[in-house]
C-alpha cells in the first residue's frame, strides 16, 4: 500500500466523479496529507441516463460523497470543483487558484460502444477527450510548466496492431517492401484502433508527445489496460459504502470482468463476444490506483514524454469467462455474435513495463483470484440492484445508426461546446491581432 508518497501538496484529479477518478481521489486523500481537488463536469451522469445504464450502487452528488469521506476518516482535505475542460477560461482559473503539484487527467468519455452509437456520440467523444485534453496542456504551459501531468491513455490504442513486443519508448524499425529493406528511425510503434473512443486516445497520446517536447512539460501517458474491480481499501466495507465508486455493469459503460461478475451473481450466463479468443490486458482497480500514485514520485525530465503500460494480466475473453465460471458449478458460458470488430491477433505479445510498477507483476495469479473473490462478495451484497435487461449488447460496430431523435443531452453538450469554442476563437483572434499590431 502506498502511504505518504507526497506531503502537504495539491493533487488535482480531472474526471473526479468517475470510476477511477473518484477511487484515486479517495486514496490520495486518505493515504497522504495532500489537498486533493476533484474536478468534473458530471456529464457522464447524463450519458448514463441516455443509454439507460444503471449503477450497481447509486452514487450521491460530490458534496455528499465528500461529506461522507470527512465523517468516516475525520479529514478535511478532499474538495470538488464543477468544471468543463472545454471551457479554457474557467480551467485557467482553477489551475491558478490551486496551483497543483500534480494534475491527473482521467476525464474522458470512456466507452467504445457509446462512441460507435451514432455521429453525435462520436463527435462528443472527440470533443471531450481530445479538445479537453489539449486545453489542459495549454493551461499547464501558460500557467506553470512545473506541474506534473499524468494523462490516462489506453492500451486499446494497440488493438489492431499485431506485434510480439510493445516497447515503452521510441524504437528503430525495419521493414521489407518490393524485395528491399527500409528503415524507420526513432518512432513509437504504430497504433491502430477499431472504434472512435480508442481513436481519440491515439490522438491524446500523440498530443502528449508533441506538447512535452514543444513546451518542455513533465508529461506521463498511462496506457491503461482494462480495469476490473468494484472497490479499494477505502470503500470496500459495508460501513463505507457511501464512498462507493461508480460501478457500471451494462453493455455500454461496463468493462468485461465487471459485467461477467454481475452476470455470475444473478445466475445469468456469462456472455462471451465471438469465439472469445481476442486477448486483453487487465489490471485491478486497486493496482491501478497504487500504480498511478507511484507515478507522482518517478523522475520526469521536462521535455521528455514518459510512457507507462499500466497492466498486470493478459488473458483472452474466453479464459476470463472460464476462470470466473469456476467459482460457481452452475455457471454457464454463452458465445454470442461479436458486436465489435476485435482482431484476434496471431502474435503472443510481450509488454515492456516501467520500473516503478514492475513489482505489481509479483504473485499476480493469486492477486487476480483474490480480487475476483472480493468483487463477487461485494456485488453479491447488491445483486438485487442488477437489471439484467441492460447487460446484453445493442450497439453494432458495422451498423450505421442514424437516429432521427438525437440525445437531448448530446445536443445541449454540442451547443454549449460550440459556444465555448467560438468564444475561444474570438479571444485567439484578438490576441493574434494584438501581437501583429505590436510588430
Textual characterization of the structure:
The chain has 439 residues and is α/β, with parallel strands linked by helices. It has a single domain, classed as NAD(P)-binding Rossmann-like Domain (Rossmann fold, 3-Layer(aba) Sandwich). The chain contains 12 helices and 16 strands. The chain has a 7-stranded parallel sheet with strand order 3-2-1-4-5-9-13, sandwiched between helices. Strands 10-12-14 form a 3-stranded mixed sheet. Strands 6-16 form a two-stranded parallel sheet. Strand 7 and strand 8 form a beta hairpin.
Give a short summary of the structure.
The protein is of the alpha/beta class and 439 residues long.
Structure keywords:
18% strand, Rossmann fold, disordered C terminus, 439 residues, alpha/beta, 7-stranded parallel beta sheet, 3-stranded mixed beta sheet
Number of helices: 12
Write the element-wise H/E pattern from the N-terminal end onward.
EHEHHEHEHHEEEEHEEHEEHEEHEEHH
Shape: globular
Number of strands: 16
Helix content: 25-40%
CATH superfamily heading: NAD(P)-binding Rossmann-like Domain
- Briefly note the structural class of the backbone: alpha/beta
Mean pLDDT: 91
How do the strands and helices of this protein lay out in sequence?
Elements: E1 10-14, H1 19-31, E2 35-40, H2 43-50, H3 62-73, E3 78-82, H4 88-98, E4 102-105, H5 112-115, H6 119-143, E5 148-152, E6 165-166, E7 171-177, E8 180-187, H7 196-215, E9 218-224, E10 226-228, H8 256-265, E11 270-273, E12 279-284, H9 285-294, E13 305-310, E14 313-316, H10 317-325, E15 333-336, E16 350-351, H11 364-381, H12 408-438
Parallel strand pairs: 1-2, 1-4, 2-3, 4-5, 5-9, 6-16, 9-13, 10-12, 11-15
Antiparallel strand pairs: 7-8, 12-14
Amino acid at each position: 500500500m502506498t502511504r505518504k508518497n507526497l506531503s502537504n501538496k495539491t493533487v488535482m484529479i480531472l474526471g473526479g466523479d468517475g470510476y477511477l477518478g473518484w477511487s484515486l481521489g479517495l486514496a490520495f486523500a486518505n493515504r497522504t496529507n495532500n489537498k486533493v481537488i476533484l474536478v468534473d463536469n458530471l456529464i457522464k451522469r447524463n450519458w448514463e441516463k441516455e443509454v439507460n445504464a444503471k449503477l450497481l450502487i447509486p452514487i450521491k452528488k460530490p458534496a455528499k460523497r465528500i461529506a461522507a469521506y470527512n465523517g468516516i476518516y475525520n479529514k478535511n482535505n478532499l474538495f470538488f470543483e464543477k468544471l468543463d475542460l472545454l471551457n479554457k477560461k474557467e480551467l485557467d482559473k482553477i489551475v491558478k487558484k490551486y496551483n497543483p503539484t500534480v494534475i491527473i487527467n482521467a476525464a474522458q468519455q470512456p466507452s467504445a460502444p457509446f462512441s460507435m452509437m451514432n455521429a453525435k456520440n462520436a463527435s462528443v467523444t472527440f470533443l471531450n477527450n481530445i479538445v479537453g485534453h489539449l486545453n489542459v496542456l495549454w493551461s499547464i504551459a501558460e500557467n506553470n510548466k512545473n506541474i506534473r501531468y499524468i494523462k490516462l491513455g489506453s492500451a486499446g490504442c494497440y488493438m489492431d496492431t499485431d506485434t510480439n513486443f510493445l516497447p515503452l519508448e521510441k524504437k528503430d524499425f525495419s521493414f521489407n517492401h518490393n524485395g528491399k529493406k527500409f528503415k524507420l528511425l526513432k518512432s513509437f510503434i504504430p497504433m491502430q484502433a477499431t472504434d472512435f473512443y480508442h481513436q481519440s486516445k491515439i490522438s491524446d497520446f500523440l498530443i502528449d508527445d508533441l506538447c512535452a517536447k514543444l513546451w518542455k512539460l513533465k508529461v506521463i501517458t498511462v496506457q491503461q489496460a482494462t480495469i476490473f474491480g468494484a472497490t479499494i481499501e477505502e470503500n470496500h466495507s459495508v460501513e463505507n459504502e457511501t464512498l462507493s465508486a461508480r460501478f457500471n455493469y451494462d453493455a455500454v459503460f461496463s468493462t468485461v470482468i465487471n459485467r461477467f461478475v454481475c452476470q455470475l451473481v444473478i445466475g445469468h450466463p456469462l456472455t462471451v463476444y465471438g469465439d472469445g479468443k481476442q486477448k486483453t490486458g487487465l489490471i485491478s482497480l486497486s493496482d491501478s490506483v497504487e500504480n498511478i500514485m507511484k507515478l507522482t514520485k518517478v523522475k520526469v525530465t521536462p521535455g521528455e514524454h514518459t510512457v507507462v503500460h499500466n497492466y498486470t494480466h493478459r488473458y483472452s475473453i474466453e479464459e476470463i469467462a472460464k476462470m470466473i465460471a469456476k467459482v460457481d458449478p452452475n455457471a454457464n458460458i454463452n458465445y454470442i455474435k461479436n458486436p465489435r470488430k476485435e482482431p484476434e491477433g496471431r502474435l503472443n505479445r510481450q509488454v515492456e513495463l516501467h520500473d516503478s510498477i514492475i513489482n505489481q507483476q509479483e504473485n499476480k495469479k493469486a492477486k487476480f483470484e483474490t480480487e475476483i473473490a472480493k468483487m463477487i462478495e461485494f456485488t453479491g451484497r447488491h445483486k438485487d440492484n442488477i437489471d439484467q435487461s441492460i447487460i446484453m449488447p445493442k450497439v453494432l460496430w458495422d451498423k450505421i445508426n442514424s437516429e432521427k431523435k438525437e440525445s437531448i443531452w448530446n445536443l445541449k453538450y454540442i451547443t454549449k461546446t460550440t459556444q465555448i469554442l467560438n468564444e475561444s476563437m474570438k479571444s485567439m483572434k484578438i490576441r493574434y491581432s494584438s501581437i501583429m499590431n505590436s510588430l
